[in-house]
Amino acid sequence: MKRRMHVRCHSPAFASHARPASDTMTASATGSPTGLPPTVLPELLDQAEAIRVLRRDIHAHPELCFEEERTADIVAGTLASFGIEVRRGLGKTGVVGVIQGLRPGPRALGLRADMDALPMTEHNTFAHASRHHGKMHACGHDGHVAMLLSAAQHLAAHRDFAGTVYVVFQPAEEGGGGAREMVRDGLFERFPMDAIFGMHNWPGMPVGSFAVRNGPCFASSNEFHITIRGKGCHGAMPHLGIDPVPVACQLVQAYQTILTRNVRPVETGVISVTMIQAGEATNVIPESVVMQGTVRTFTTEVLDLIENRMREITQQLCAAFGAEADFKFSRNYPPTVNHAFEAQFVREVMAELVGADQVHEFEPTMGAEDFSYFLQAKPGAYFVIGNGDGSHREGGHGLGPCMLHNPSYDFNDTLIPLGATLWVKLVERWLARA
C-alpha cells in the first residue's frame, strides 16, 4: 500500500474524510460490521475506516524495540490532532496521552497499547505488507495502537466524565522490557493512576468475544546459558579426554526431574533445552559444549526453586564426570498476574458489551508479557480480544495460519471499533465509581 497520509498533519476531524468501508467492514442489517454486537458505539464505526488506514500504514512500516520513532511520531501527532495533551520520552520512545474530563474527579485510569514489531520476515504480499525485510508486525501491536487511538479520539471528543484517562503507548514489548523502562522513567509518578489495563488480540478466538482471568495469565520468561568444559581428544582415544557431550545429555534428562520430583505437582513450570552446540569434526571429542534454553513459571517461588536446582545439578553432575561448568541464568519478564478486583471489573464491562456467553475464562499460557511490570507496580488486569480464524486476511496473505508470531499473520481490522468501545465503556464505568 502506498502511504496514504502523514498522520501528523491530520485535522481533529480526520475520520470524517474516510473512504467507503472495505469488505472487511461490511455493514449488516444492524448497522454494525459483520460479527460485531449492536452495542459498538456508532461513532467508532464511523471512524473505523480512517483508523484502519492508519493501522495498515503502521503495519507497512514496522519498527523493532526502542526504534519506534516513526510509530511514536504517528501516535503523538494523532493524539495532538484530537486535542489531547501529549508527553513523550518515557522508555525512550514511549508516548502518553492525557485526557482530562470536563469535571475534576478523584480517579484516574491507564490504558496501554504496545507499539513494536518483531525481527522476522513477513510472507504476506498484500498492499500493506511490511516494506522492511526482516521486520514485521506479527503480533498485532499495530492493531493495539489502532484500537487505543480510536478510543482516545472518542474520549477526547466526549469528556463528560470526572477524572483523568492516560493512554499509554509502550515501546519494546518484544523482549526489550519497555514497560519496565517506562516504570523506571517515572510513569506512575508523573501520571498517577488508580489502575492500568492492557488488551491483546487472540487468534483462534471468535470475533466478538473476550477472555480474562484473575491471577496468573502469562508466565515468567527466563533464559539459561551453560558451558560444560571437558578435555578434548581424538575420537579413537576417549580415555585420554573428558567428553562433555554425554554430560550434556545427562543434564537434559536431569533437569526434567526438577519438574517431576522437586516442584509440587500442583505447580506449573517448563524447562526447555533449546540449543546444544558442540564439536567441529567427527573424529574429535570436543573441548566444550554450550547449552541454552528457557524456563517458564507462574510464580517467583517456583522460579527460585528451578534456578537453584539447575545450578546444583549442573555443578555436581559435571564434577562427577570430571568436567567443569559455567552456569548463567537470566531472569527476563516476571509472570503477569491479574488483580482480582480489576479482572472482575473488566469482565463485567465485557459482559455488558458482548453478553456474558461471549466472555470466557482465559486459559493461562506459558508465553510471557511485559505488562507484568505494570501489574507489579499498580493494580490492573490484562485480557484478550478474539482475532478470529484468519479468514479476514485479504488475497496475498501467506499460506501459514494467522497465528501470533507467524509470518502470515495480520491483525483483524474488524476488531478496531469493538476494542475501542470496550476501552471507552471501561473508562466511563471506572470513573463513575462512587
Automatic annotation (TrEMBL):
**One Pfam annotation, family name?**
M20_dimer
- Key word Hydrolase present: yes
One GO MF term on file is: metal ion binding
Per UniProt, the ranges with Polar residues bias are 23-33
Residues bound to Mn(2+): 139, 141, 174, 200, 405
Gene Ontology biological process terms, A to Z: diaminopimelate biosynthetic process
The UniProt note on the cofactor reads as follows: The Mn(2+) ion enhances activity.
* Cofactors, names only: Mn(2+)
Annotated region Disordered: where? 1-38
Its keywords, alphabetically, are: Hydrolase, Manganese, Metal-binding
User: Which ranges carry the Peptidase M20 dimerisation domain?
Assistant: 223-317
- Matching Gene3D superfamilies: 3.30.70.360, Zn peptidases (3.40.630.10)
Q: What NCBIfam families does this protein map onto?
A: amidohydrolases (TIGR01891)
Know the name of this protein? Hippurate hydrolase
Q: Which organism is it from?
A: Aquabacterium commune
